[in-house]
Amino acid sequence: MPFVPTPLPVARKMLELAGAGPGDILYDLGCGDGRIPLLAVKEFNVDKAICIELREDLADKAEEEAERQGLKGRMEVRREDMFKADISDATIVTLFLLTSVNNELAPKLRKELRRGTRIVSHEFQITGWRPLAFATISEGHISHNIYLYVIGYSTR
Ligand SMILES: C[S@@+](CC[C@H](N)C(=O)[O-])C[C@H]1O[C@@H](n2cnc3c(N)ncnc32)[C@H](O)[C@@H]1O
User: Fold this and answer.
1) In the predicted model, is pLDDT for residue 156 greater than 80?
2) Ligand 1 mean position to 152 CA, how many Å?
3) CA angle 69-73-76, nearest 5°?
């Protein structure tokens, strides 16, 4: 899957919709250049953000940016396959993948995440899950959809 970054205003809206803040541990699965975890730490003051990325060049970029912004203590980059990552301590998971990939991930999310964990997906839904909230935001000429799911509410 190619790297397509979430525009920052959309990322901000995702984190607002999830109610991100102190006490949260956020995972971005396929974090690209790390912009969502970086924003979560910098502007939303989450306790910790974990950036999971397979591509070395992107993981390097995310790590360099965390270092440059002095956020390395609270932002961790893991170079691994998101399907194999331990995400069990997450309170928020962010996704910008494809519906097919979301659906492949769904059993893992359901199995590993605790009740009440929020999952925010940019653009793509998780088939059969019930969103608790939905938002749209326009960036340039493009309208972006954001879906919020909560373990225990969206899943049964
Ligand atoms: C559409 S980009 C989204 C990047 C970032 N989350 C954002 O919203 O700006 C998807 C990213 O997922 C990464 N990716 C795809 N499959 C992966 C996997 N199995 N494990 C870890 N990262 C993966 C890609 O390398 C790419 O950087």
Assistant:
1) no
2) 26
3) 90
